[in-house]
């Protein structure tokens, strides 16, 4: 498919919308830390991203051929609806990038006895956040030049990149031994 969103018009429609709704519900129910600075308010940002995931699921992109039957809440092939879908997706990805760049780096205690490496946790968050922004910026650029499957690849890379930051932040990759010292600069 051209993009992840175009899987709505395949046999994977229910899986696509189910995963988006699950992610949206998870992000809305996630209670992050509040912050007076809007772009660092974890709870508010994840709520907005969750609602954007619902918007992506319930207002899908237009099909390749508008003559086919559209099974959505609003069963029309309309450019305005298509634009709304892409706005929801763009906001979702921008928020995930912002969470990586500005929220995940808050409150990390650094052990000064351990030398800081380029693979330090905060550096990974920032690199991944900026990569998400780069991927999102490249989508319209490569689409303009009609690079095949560029939207799909860049969307997938953005999701994987944010997944990496979330796994590192949740310590799912392990924080003991040399890995913990390298990634988290913590003395274990």
Gross morphology is elongated
Order of helices and strands: HHHHHH
The biggest sheet, with number of strands, parallel, antiparallel or mixed sense and barrel status, is: none
Beta-strand portion reads under 5%
Low-pLDDT ranges: none
Radius of gyration (Å)? 19 Å
The helix tally amounts to 6
Q: How many individual β-strands? A: 0
Percent of residues in helices comes to 55-70%
Quick overview of this protein structure:
With 188 residues, this protein is an all-alpha fold.
For the structure shown, list the relevant keywords.
0% strand, mainly alpha, elongated, 188 residues
Please characterize this protein's 3D structure.
- This protein has 188 residues and is mainly α.
- It is 59% helix and 0% strand.
- The chain has helices at 13-29, 42-58, 79-103, 121-144, 150-169, 177-184.
- The longest helix is centred in the middle third of the chain and has 25 residues, at 79-103.
